Amino acid sequence: MGLLEVKHGLLQIAESLDFLHNNAHLVHRAISPENILITSSGAWKLGGFGFAITTDQASSDLTRSQAFHYAEYDVEDSMLPLQPSLNYTAPELVRSKAPSAGCSSDIFSFGCLAYQLIAHKPLFDCHNNVKMYMNTLNYLSSAAFSSIPPELIPDLQKMLSANESFRPTAMDFTGSAFFPE
């Protein structure tokens, strides 16, 4: 898949997320390559809404205590409980003491997806191991972004911030210098 096609697809997913967050008032919580559908005409669609919650649910105390629970060490994929892939899950959905699990969680996952599509490798390759995930998150360096176009790096780093308040909105992402006007 060429870079132009990836740019076009990322813009379509960003528009989908903007609609999801601001019109449908939903948080997807499972954005990953498996949940991106490409039509025969080349349009990118967001699917896989099995973990979606309303934005009201995302801000409630009950939901805050219901982060996904991943194993600390490697486990066989067939033994995993039903939950999104850890490689694309925002840290606040992994840590049980998260202050929130809102729209910014989708932006983190979208950043992981964008990284993989452009770098041709996942940013996180943690085999559903929380310790590997947290280690990668805590030690992200500029070297991790060496295969990313320079005009996208600042926006991608914001999307992948461990602090959800630093993440942009989906529409903010569409204003990146990475996308020509």
Automatic annotation (TrEMBL):
Gene3D superfamilies (alphabetical): Transferase(Phosphotransferase) domain 1
SMART domains: S_TKc
GO molecular function terms noted in the UniProt entry: ATP binding; protein kinase activity
Pfam families assigned: Pkinase
Protein's UniProt keywords contain Glycoprotein: no
Domain of life: Eukaryota
Residue ranges of domain Protein kinase in the record: 1-179
Keywords, alphabetical: Kinase, Transferase
Protein name, UniProt field: SCY1-RELATED S/T PROTEIN KINASE-LIKE
Phylogenetic lineage: Eukaryota, Viridiplantae, Streptophyta, Embryophyta, Tracheophyta
